[in-house]
Design a protein that fits this description.
D-Maltodextrin-Binding Protein, domain 2; elongated; MetI-like fold; 63% helix; 13 strands; alpha/beta
Length: 499
């Protein structure tokens, strides 16, 4: 019994040791799992901003940074929520929050009466002024003088509204950096812009100055969808706390101090300035990556949309050709004609916005997929007419010969007519893909960072338009030349079969 008792005690000690070891291993995992679960259960709000507005929002090291971003991070930390940032065109951000594609707008957004009718604003968190940027040798303009000037503004901004209502019709640009670049090129006399980014532009361009008198005093606030009182109250409470303990002022002061660029150093020669600009635009901070990443997005959208367009175009072309040749499929032919009329009669940018904000307005869907659908549907209409013209160009005797050999209509169309039609329309199809490739440059309207958007980001950081635009143009040109070469080789390969 004593031996059995000792064995039982030994086994009991082993069980205790095993249990202790398992607990030591499992409990940390359980605790970690609980923590990650809590984090995953935190509410996530999608934020729209136009990240070419330093120091409030801009790209730094491939990520969006700035005053607004740090304010959101502090609110998230204090309120236990997460924020997902979406960079999109400024004139689309109000629409995005109205349609529910995003939860709020934080983009140096000025409170105006017109905007208050569309969205609910939080309490202001920063003051702003609309100022006039002009060349240093320009006189100090009075309001009477401004009516005679060529004025540039950022489209959809409060500066745009003020100039339109109080001075004259301005020239509108997608962002302030592009307007300033146009003024540097002699296309404008002055630019109206918010004071914070205006100071950055002037510091980066020694030939510019800010006129001493502000045009109008304004305030920035966050915007949410009408009726979203829960989110509005949470943001207001957080802003009150940030203002009360000085955190809000500290964030703004730090960014105003740290993100103000040094005065530009101008090289002695034109070649030296070009080298300096090249290093600043592409080498410094690895800014070339914006173009590289945008290039990949552009290729992905263009290739996928082309496949959708070809498949859809072939189907519509066969239906319409069959209706023309046999008188059948009249209902389908009518639907195809309606589709062609609508798609070819409206701009592709309007189609893209309708698909994103209206058709998929209540659906959380990949923006790349939205772009593929939009450009695929648009391209399909043109491909359909190209292929239909190719089918109709094939001698009708080919169809009759196939039918006389006992082939069905479908087999004859697929095996005899379509291969000949494809050879006839290959150059036109190649041209359609080239057009499609370039049309993808409007993807920035739905917050996609394509090739053109990559160039915009570089311009917003360096305040230089020439080299970023030239770089984007050269990349598009290279893609078009390469595609044209491949199409020519494919066309020659097909012609070998005719000999």
């Amino acid at each position: 019994m004593s031996v059995i008792s000792r064995m039982a005690k030994a086994i009991s000690r082993q069980k205790q040791w095993v249990c202790s070891a398992v607990a030591a291993l499992v409990l940390p995992l359980i605790m970690t799992g609980c923590d990650s679960k809590d984090e995953s259960q935190q509410p996530t709000y999608v934020v729209a901003m136009e990240a070419t507005f330093p120091p409030y929002e801009f790209y730094k090291g491939g990520e969006i940074a700035g005053i607004d971003v740090d304010i959101l991070k502090e609110i998230g930390r204090r309120k236990g929520v997460n924020f997902k940032l979406e960079d999109m065109a400024f004139d689309s951000i109000i629409t995005a929050v109205q349609t529910g594609k995003v939860d709020l707008v934080v983009s140096g957004l000025t409170v105006t009466q017109d905007r208050q009718r569309m969205v609910d604003f939080t309490r202001p968190y920063s003051g702003a002024r609309q100022v006039l940027i002009a060349p240093k040798n320009a006189p100090i303009y009075s309001k009477e003088d401004l009516a005679k000037l060529r004025l540039g503004v950022q489209h959809g901004s409060s500066g745009d509204v003020f100039v339109t209502e109080n001075i004259r019709e301005p020239e509108r640009f997608t962002n302030g950096a592009l307007a300033v670049s146009a003024m540097n090129a002699g296309k404008l006399d002055a630019v109206v812009l918010d004071n914070a980014p205006a100071e950055n532009h002037v510091a980066g361009s020694p030939e510019l100055t800010i006129q001493p008198t502000a045009l109008v005093e304004e305030e920035y606030a966050m915007a949410v969808r009408k009726g979203n009182t829960a989110l509005l109250n949470m943001l207001n409470a957080a802003l009150i706390d940030l203002e009360a303990d000085g955190t809000l002022k500290a964030i703004i002061d730090r960014h105003m101090r740290e993100n103000k660029p040094e005065n530009a150093q101008v090289a002695d020669t034109a070649f030296g300035r070009l080298i300096d600009d090249f290093k600043t635009d592409f080498i410094k901070n690895d800014r070339w990556k914006y173009l590289a990443e945008g290039f990949l997005v552009t290729i992905e959208i263009a290739v996928a949309a082309a496949l959708v367009g070809i498949a859809l175009g072939f189907l519509i072309a066969v239906i319409r050709s069959t209706a023309d040749l046999t008188g059948r499929l009249k209902v389908l032919d009518w639907l195809c004609r309606l589709y062609l009329t609508v798609v070819r009669g409206t701009p592709v940018v309007v189609q893209l916005l309708i698909i994103y904000f209206v058709i998929f307005g209540a659906v959380d869907i990949s923006k790349v997929l939205v772009a593929i659908v939009a450009f695929g549907l648009n391209s399909g209409a043109y491909v359909a007419e190209i292929i239909r013209s190719g089918i109709m160009s094939v001698d009708r005797g080919q169809m009759e010969a196939g039918r006389s050999l006992g082939l069905s209509y479908g087999t004859t169309m697929r095996s005899v007519v379509l291969p000949q039609a494809l050879k006839n329309v290959l150059p036109a199809l190649g041209n359609e893909f080239i057009v499609l490739l370039k049309e993808t440059s409007i993807c920035g309207y739905i917050a996609l960072q394509d090739l053109t958007k990559g160039g915009d980001i570089i311009r917003s950081q360096t305040y230089d338009a020439f080299l970023p635009l030239l770089g984007v143009a050269l990349i598009y040109l290279t893609m078009v030349v390469l595609l044209s070469h491949l199409l020519k080789k494919f066309e020659l390969h097909l012609k070998k079969n005719e000999r």
